[in-house]
Design a protein that fits this description.
Helices cover 0% and strands 48% of the residues. The protein contains no helices and 25 strands. The radius of gyration is 21 Å and the shape is elongated.
């Protein structure tokens, strides 16, 4: 399963930066609450996006045991711990910050994302990693016309679209399924997850002069922030010829760190 996470270089946050999370954050394992906190911290261990660090005092059913192993992580030294939640044991699931890490991180723990079964901000699920407070997604209806071609074949043609603007990524053009020539595409089993948009429902590939894998996708049930793209289809600007209002768009350059969708 692919994932994505991106931040425009101009908005990079310094490694080691820490700031409060103004939301209730919870994590679960096997239906049990590992922690429940209103005192979580964002910590940038790398520049693209933060992780949550949780006060050890706010563990509920989660019990940590020290593995006797220390590593230098992005924000400083941390001690690896195994997590036990009832009968469930997740080895190496957590890192408790040690001396040398930023002061606010002391007595907090950063969990490996995949070690928990689910994460919640307030009562909404969070996918892949925490959403950066410095990234945003805007989905706006537009009367721009869009035509998609590949290997000289028209794959979609629409009089209107929904433009999705996501920090650090090329604009994506979501089209009504009635305007997409699905008979010229074949379905794919690929699934990707995005912390800002949710989990994709479908991908499509195209067999033209050569095979072009996973060039289009759909979110049937996106996040609330991206609800306008529900059921619509977008194509990779990078892999097709995309005409907007009659003009061929240039392929995105390396000013963007392109994502899976």
């Amino acid at each position: 399963m692919a994932t994505e996470s991106v931040l425009h270089p101009r908005l990079i946050v310094p490694i080691g930066h820490v700031e409060p999370v103004p939301r209730r954050v919870r994590g679960t394992v096997a239906g049990r609450v590992v922690f429940d906190t209103r005192r979580a911290l964002y910590v940038w261990e790398w520049q693209a996006y933060p992780q949550f660090s949780i006060p050890v005092a706010d563990l509920v059913d989660g019990v940590l045991s020290d593995d006797g192993h220390m590593e230098q992580l992005g924000a400083g030294p941390a001690h690896r711990h195994t997590l036990q939640v009832g009968p469930e044991v997740r080895a190496g699931a957590a890192w408790v910050w040690g001396e040398g890490a930023p002061g606010p991180l002391h007595d907090t723990v950063r969990f490996e994302w995949e070690a928990l079964d689910s994460w919640l901000e307030e009562d909404e699920p969070v996918f892949v990693h925490p959403r950066s407070p410095y990234s945003r997604v805007d989905a706006l209806r537009s009367n721009s016309s869009v035509r998609v071609e590949l290997d000289g074949v028209v794959l979609a043609e629409a009089d209107t679209c929904v433009k999705l603007f996501e920090t650090g990524l090329p604009t994506r053009y979501y089209l009504d399924p009635a305007t997409v020539h699905r008979t010229r595409l074949r379905p794919s089993d690929t699934v990707t997850r995005c912390p800002y948009k949710g989990t994709t429902s479908a991908y499509w590939s195209f067999d033209g002069i050569t095979a072009h894998e996973d060039i289009a996708w759909t979110y049937d049930f996106p996040t609330v922030q991206a609800h306008r793209i529900a059921g619509l289809t977008a194509f990779y600007n990078e892999h097709v010829d995309l005409y907007v209002d009659g003009s061929l768009l240039p392929k995105p350059t390396d000013i963007y760190r392109t994502s899976s969708d």
